[in-house]
Specification:
Blueprint lengths: L9 H7 L4 H5 L2 E6 L2 E7 L13 H18 L7 E11 L7 E11 L3 E9 L5 E12 L1
Antiparallel strand pairs: 1-2, 2-4, 3-6, 4-5, 5-6
Length: 139
């Protein structure tokens, strides 16, 4: 079973995203512990769909990045990286402003795959999406 690698701190994860999509989204890790990562982003007009509601890709970007960073921080010691091989999202609601949060939890921390679940909530704690992804560990 993979354990949380101490070199993957919140600051290290934020440095890793500089100039990449998570940085453009405004992705911020708020907590990292064994088997769990929490993150958030502030909803702004650039992240909305033309209909004025939160774009689905924004929600997936938050959830997938939270799960991906969780996976990265829990890679087996000899692993080099990972890649997403499957993801699924169910949308239950939306947001037009405020902060949305994702809590990603490991469902499986294996040597060759990891499975992560995330719940994305609005700032009132109402779930707006359920997300699951499978990561292939790369050696």
């Amino acid at each position: 079973m993979s354990t949380l690698r101490p070199e993957f701190t919140i600051d290290a994860l934020h440095e890793r995203q500089s100039g990449k999509l998570p940085d453009l989204l405004g992705f911020r890790v708020t907590a990292l512990e064994h088997g769990m990562l929490s993150a958030e982003l502030t909803v702004r007009s650039e992240l909305l769909a033309p209909n004025g509601f939160l774009h689905a890709a924004t929600v997936i970007g938050l959830a997938d990045t939270a799960c991906g960073y969780g996976c990265f921080a829990h890679l087996p010691e000899t692993a080099r990286n990972f890649t997403t091989v499957e993801l699924k999202s169910n949308f239950l609601g939306t947001a037009r402003d405020g902060v949305i949060r994702a809590v990603a939890k490991a469902a499986h921390l294996g040597r060759t795959t990891q499975v992560w679940d995330a719940t994305v909530s609005d700032e009132n704690g109402k779930a707006i999406a359920l997300f699951r992804c499978t990561q292939m560990v790369l050696y």
